[in-house]
Amino acid sequence: MFKIIFSREFLYSEEKDAKDLQGRSKFGEKKEGRIQYSLVEGLYLAEKKKARIMDGKGKNMSKENFIRRARRIQPNFWVRYCVFRDLRDRGYIVKTALKFGADFRVYDRGVKPGDDHAKWIVYPVHESEVLTWYEFAAKNRVAHSTRKKLLLGVVDEENDVSYWECSWVKP
User: Fold this and answer.
1) Buried b / exposed e across 27-57, counting CB within 10 Å, b at 16+?
2) N or C: which terminus of the chain carries fewer CB neighbours within 10 A?
3) Which domain holds residue 12?
């Protein structure tokens, strides 16, 4: 189990085990000689007992404290995490997709980033959220313009996730 440090709005590790895991399973991104993690990746690795999350002072953070801090940074953190966890548990590689204007990009099983392109752009939403047609069209346009399929990950009250795949069709 390696240490991940929570620093402001991101997580990082400089340990060899983190670098090995990044090479094998594509968790995190290599930046400046260390591995930087998204908030959802950090919680996932902690829940899977691969890593311990530490605060800036080197003290262990409880899961509850980490989630509280993550929600201050990302108000929809828990919904995003539920979708991330479900996809990783199903064997998909999930990476952030901020440069595409989405939450995540997801690679088909067996495909690693750099070997091929992501198959989906994913937007996590809670089942109680309202999505206008304009917002839906904008999300679909982003997916289409990046040659990916739109996947809505809908999280219910029990934190279960259902997926809705959308794509452009020419009749």
Assistant:
1) bbbeeeebbbbbbbbbbbbbeeebbebbeee
2) C
3) 2-73
